[in-house]
Specification:
Helix content is 51%, strand content 4%. It is mainly alpha-helical. It has one domain.
């Protein structure tokens, strides 16, 4: 994984905050109770990135505000990190 331990901790804190405020989020995704669920091909990826966007954590290039994760990360790096901090969801719809 390309994420540093410090950046992973920031990401985990953001994800944990979202999931604490929405304790049934994983179950809702498993049951297809979210917008455009019928079009989703990779449910785990959709769940991880939706939680990530809701967290407000920003991936930047050094020009952002404090709290941004600064690094040369692409979607693949971000998804790999998200899979380690997000719960696993399984399609049940």
């Amino acid at each position: 994984m390309k994420f540093t331990n410090e950046h992973l901790a920031i990401l985990k804190a953001g994800v944990d905050k979202v999931l604490a405020n929405n304790p049934n989020a994983a179950q809702a995704y498993e049951e297809g109770r979210f917008p455009r669920s019928e079009k989703v091909k990779d449910l785990q990826r959709r769940f991880c990135f939706d939680v990530f966007y809701a967290s407000g954590v920003k991936i930047g290039d050094g020009m952002g505000t404090s709290g941004d994760i600064i690094g040369n990360y692409n979607d693949s790096h971000i998804y790999t990190a998200l899979k380690t901090v997000c719960p696993t969801v399984e399609r049940k719809y």
